[in-house]
Design goal:
By secondary structure, the chain is of the alpha+beta class. It folds into two domains: about 25-185, no CATH class; about 270-410, 2-Layer Sandwich (Heat Shock Protein 90). The protein has ten helices and five strands. It has helices at about 25-40, 60-70, 75-90, 95-115, 115-140, 145-225, 230-260, 275-290, 310-330, 365-380, and strands spanning about 295-300, 335-340, 345-355, 380-390, 395-405. It has a five-stranded mixed beta sheet, covered by helices on one side. β1 (about 295-300), α9 (about 310-330) and β2 (about 335-340) form a beta-alpha-beta unit.
Length: about 400
C-alpha cells in the first residue's frame, strides 16, 4: 500500500507556516481533546489497569498532548517527536483514550503539513514499527493474543500516517488541477488578446488601404483649388474631389457592412484582385495628373495560373498603397508598376520619382509602409522600400515585394 503512494510537490496551502501562532482550528482541537480527556477521567474511564503512576498522573501526558495539538500545523515534526515520547510516558499511567486519539491526530498532521521528505518517511517508519512490535510481542508472549498489540500499534501510527498521505496527495492534486486551470485560462486569454490584436491590425490595414488613396487625392486637389485662382483648375479639382469622396464613402460603407455582418452566414464581399489593377491605375493617373505624374502598368505575368486569394489581395493593396504614397510625395515624372510571376513567387515593384515636388502635398504618417510590410510578413515573403539609384543616375523610390505563391515556401 505504501509503495503505491506518490508525493507531488506540496502546495503553498499545505506548507508549514513560518508563524508559531497556533491556527484557530488547532486550538479548537486541543481544547476538545483536553475537555474530553477530563470528562473521561472524571467518570473513571481508563485504557489500562493498575500502573506505576496511578490517579491524577494520567492528566499530565494528556495535558501535554493537548498542548502539542497547538503545534500540529506550525511545527508538525517537532510535535510528533514529543508526542511519541508523551505516548510512551502515558503507558506508565492508567491511560486515557483522549491522549491516544490526540496522538493519532498529531501523526496525521505530521504527514499532512510536514515536509515532503517527512511525508515519505513517516508511513514507512510506522509500518516498520508496527511489524517490529507485532513480531516482538508474539515472540515474547508466544500467544495469538499478542497480535492485538500489533493491531493497536498500527491503528495509532500506521493508519493515521497513511490517511495523511492520501489526503495530502488529494489536496496536492487539487492544487495542481487549479494551477493548470489558471494556466489554461491565462493561455486562452492570451490567445484571445492576440486574436483581437491581429484582427484590429488587419482592419487598420484594410481601412488605410481602402480610404487613404481617396482622401489623399481629396487633400491634394482641394489644396490646389484653394491656392490656384483658375476657374478651370478649380472645376477639375472639384470634380476629382467629388469622385474620390463618393468612392471613399462607398469603400467605408462596404467595410462597415463587413464589420456589422461578421456574425451572419451571408457570403463575404469579394476581395479586390489583380484583375482590377487597370482601373486602379487609371484612377491614380487621373488623380496625379495635376501633380505632373504619369502612371504606367507593366504586367508580365502572362498566362500564369491563378494565384492564391491572399497573395492577390496583398499584391493589390501594395500597389494601391504605393500609388497613394506616390500621389502624396513623388516628384513630377513617371510612376511604373511592374508585376512578374515565377513558379515560386509573385514580384510586385513600384518605382516613383524621388525628390522635392512643387505644389500641394498631403501629409503622411508612415502607416502605409508598416501595413505593406505586415502584409508581406504574414505571407512569409520579402519586402523592401526606400530610395535607389536609377539607370540614368537619378533617384527613385522603389517598393518591391516578393510574395510566395506556394504555401510553406519562402522566397530567397
Amino acid at each position: 500500500m505504501i509503495a503505491s503512494l506518490r508525493y507531488p510537490r506540496p502546495s503553498r496551502a499545505l506548507r508549514p507556516s513560518r508563524s508559531l501562532r497556533p491556527h484557530r482550528d488547532d486550538a479548537l482541537i486541543a481544547l476538545a481533546g483536553l475537555l474530553g480527556g477530563l470528562s473521561l477521567w472524571t467518570v473513571g474511564l481508563h485504557t489500562q489497569g493498575d500502573r506505576l503512576l496511578a490517579g491524577a498522573w494520567v492528566l499530565l501526558p494528556m495535558t501535554v498532548m493537548a498542548g502539542l495539538e497547538l503545534l500540529r500545523r506550525t511545527a508538525p515534526q517537532f510535535a510528533l517527536v514529543v508526542a511519541t515520547l508523551v505516548l510512551i510516558a502515558d503507558q506508565f499511567t492508567s491511560g486515557s483514550l483522549a491522549t491516544v486519539l490526540m496522538f493519532t491526530d498529531v501523526m496525521y498532521a505530521a504527514v499532512l503539513y510536514g515536509t515532503p521528505a517527512a511525508a515519505r518517511r513517516i508511513p514507512w517508519t510506522t509500518a516498520l514499527i508496527t511489524v517490529g512490535v507485532t513480531a516482538g510481542f508474539v515472540a515474547w508472549f508466544q500467544q495469538p493474543d499478542a497480535l492485538l498489540i500489533g493491531v493497536a500499534t498500527g491503528l495509532v501510527s500506521f493508519v493515521p500516517a497513511t490517511t495523511g498521505v492520501l489526503v495530502r496527495n488529494h489536496r496536492d492534486a487539487a492544487e495542481s488541477a487549479r494551477l493548470r486551470a489558471e494556466q489554461t485560462t491565462l493561455l486562452a486569454e492570451m490567445d484571445r488578446v492576440q486574436a483581437v490584436t491581429s484582427e484590429r491590425a488587419r482592419m487598420a490595414r484594410e481601412l488605410h488601404d481602402m480610404v487613404a488613396n481617396h482622401l489623399s487625392a481629396i487633400a491634394i486637389h482641394s489644396t490646389a483649388a484653394l491656392s490656384l485662382d483658375d476657374e478651370r483648375t478649380t472645376r477639375d479639382a472639384l470634380t476629382v474631389i467629388r469622385e474620390n469622396s463618393v468612392e471613399g464613402l462607398a469603400e467605408m460603407r462596404r467595410l462597415i457592412g463587413l464589420l456589422r455582418d461578421a456574425g451572419d452566414d451571408t457570403e463575404p464581399t469579394a476581395a479586390p484582385t489583380l484583375g482590377a489593377l487597370d482601373t486602379l491605375v487609371d484612377q491614380a493617373r487621373t488623380n496625379g495628373a495635376s501633380s505632373g505624374l504619369d502612371i504606367t502598368l507593366d504586367d508580365r505575368r502572362g498566362t500564369s495560373p491563378g494565384l492564391p486569394a491572399p497573395v492577390e489581395l496583398a499584391a493589390y493593396r501594395i500597389v494601391q498603397e504605393s500609388l497613394t504614397n506616390a500621389l502624396k510625395h513623388a516628384a513630377p515624372g513617371t510612376v511604373t508598376v511592374e508585376l512578374d510571376c515565377s513558379a515560386r513567387a509573385l514580384t510586385v515593384c513600384v518605382d516613383s520619382p524621388f525628390g522635392d515636388r512643387p505644389g500641394p502635398r498631403a501629409p503622411g504618417s508612415g502607416a502605409g509602409l508598416v501595413g505593406m510590410r505586415e502584409r508581406v510578413e504574414l505571407l512569409d515573403g520579402v519586402f523592401e522600400a526606400g530610395p535607389v539609384t536609377a539607370g540614368d543616375g537619378g533617384k527613385i523610390w522603389r517598393v518591391r515585394a516578393e510574395l510566395p505563391v506556394v504555401e510553406g515556401r519562402k522566397t530567397a
